[in-house]
Amino acid sequence: MTMKDETYLIWSYEHAAWWRGAFAGYTPDAIAAGRYSYEQARNICWEANKHRPVDEPHEVMVLESDLKEFLETL
After folding, report:
1. Per-residue b/e over 1-19, b at no fewer than 16 CB within 10 Å?
2. pLDDT tens column, 1-27
3. What 3-state class would DSSP assign to 67?
4. In whole angstroms, what separates CA 21 from the centre of its chain?
5. What is the pTM (predicted TM-score) of this model?
6. What HEC string does 4-46 produce?
């Protein structure tokens, strides 16, 4: 399986929450977060961050398989 075949969540540093599914707001609960394809997550993050400094993103893609590790960094 490649990274493009995996499922992604999107963390919003701007809102300190996860994107919900179908672009329906935010949630602090990773279980309630939306799951997106690589292409969907990449496009969402690109649009959200295109005018931001690279080291200060508003939104980031998180592989679902890396969720536990990512949560430890927050």
Report:
1. eeeeeeebbbbbeeeebbb
2. 676 789 999 999 999 999 999 888 999
3. helix
4. 11
5. 0.86
6. HHCCEEEEECCCCEEECHHHCCEECCHHHCCCECHHHHHHHHH
